[in-house]
Amino acid sequence: MYSDLPISSEVRCPTDRSGNPIVPQKPAFADGAHRESNSSQQHGHDGFDVLPLISNETRSGSGVPGAVFNLATSIIGAGIMALPATMRVLGLLLGFVSIILMGILSEFSIEVLVKFAALKRTTSYGETVEVACGKSVRVISETCIIVYNCGILIVYLIIMGDVMSGSSSHKGVFEQMLGKQGWWDDRRLIIFLLLILVLAPLCSLQKIDSLSSTSAASVALAVVFVVVACVVAFIKLVEGKLEAPRLLPDVGTRRAVLDLLVVIPIMTNAYICHPNVQPIYNELEGRSVKKMIKVGRISAVLSVVVYAFTATSGYLLFGEGTDSDVLTNFDRNLGVPHSAVINYIVRISYVIHLLLVFPVIHFSLRNTVDAAIFRSSIPLQECRKKSLILTFVLLALLYLGSAVIPNIWVAFKFTGTTSGLALGFFFPSLIGLRLNGQGESLSSREKMLLRLMLVLALVTGIIGVVGNAYSIKEPRE
To answer: 418 near 80, Cβ under 8 Å?
Structure first.
């Protein structure tokens, strides 16, 4: 090989003020560790904490609190309002145990996902699946992300529209405040205004850490609902107005058994947030696997607490009359002072909660669509015009979906029992089992949990689909 420098040229080594040559240092990771050599991966030594997920660059991002709020917001969505109904079907004792168990399994699957994504230097959920299972399985996983996120976001839009404008099954906020006749009675118009005025500006943000403040407000609003429901339930308990709750499921009738089959997937689906884990990690300040595991554990504990109080208080308040969406129960007299004001607070705060959750889920959807369709083009983070166009196209499609689909619950349950379970339990289990031993090895207990999650995803998905099919054939009396 020949040099382009003339023969007479000199190459000088940089020196310090004393004339001593400056020796370049080894590049450091974001957490301050040094990369030794590729042999460290071949033999496995210190664990995952020295592995960055993307690159060795040190840049500012969201701290642990912001990451916790973003991840908790991804978990606590519209499914929270279905939990009181699942408690009604499962019974107080079994429902409470299920909430805790699903929270533990979900947090473990997040840990597995982050560890092996760091080990293989992958940048997204789909890329991690591809490394573990191949390109064809990655296509399936990204299709699941798109289907699941689209379904969830359409559910959000429909619920927001129904809460504000009303539906055939309950009275809306505007209907009660302003009267039934008027533009506020049109659900599609209300959704359109919410999209243009609130959701489009938030969804246009390019970085997920920009949503940390809105995520914190969203979690706070979820806590407001929990506090209000618990206070009302406590007041009615003191006054002796609460029905005695069931502790175990009712399996005495065929209808009860079908309900039990339907709600099991909803309970497992309540913790699905996995497509957002890596984007949140990517923008974590001073990121390390240890720090992200801390974020995952705090988020899981927060979600379990919110879910447990919401499901318990909602079921205690409305008993066997708890609707599939407990929000519809808050359009009637609660039997406590200032019941009308409490109803407004609960429903309006929940709509604001969904408005703030929506952009976080949309961020995952937008990145996945970009990776699946425009894989060879300019990265989304580097092209503002491309990001805006994709954002508005997706919002338009989501709006059309919310206008066409009249009933959210059948679609919600089918989406959860297929793509939701695949993303939260099936693919993380495959990733852990397939990549085990490549750089690091899982313990026998961890491998057992992964196999349990794999079986749980398959069995629960089949049960959920069968239960939903029978529920359609046999509508509730």
So the answer is: no
Q: What is the pLDDT of residues 284-311, one digit of tens each?
A: 888 888 889 999 999 999 989 989 998 8
Nearest-angstrom CA–CA distance, 383 and 368: 16
| Amino acid letter, residue 375 | R
Kindly report which listed range (48-52, 143-147, 447-451) carries the lowest average pLDDT score: 48-52
- Give Cβ neighbours of residue 58 (< 8 Å, ≥ 6 apart): 28, 30, 286
Q: How far is CA 402 from CA 34, 189, 198, 256, in A?
A: 50, 11, 17, 30
pLDDT digits (tens, 9 = 90+) for 370-413: 877 876 667 666 677 888 889 999 999 999 988 887 766 666 66
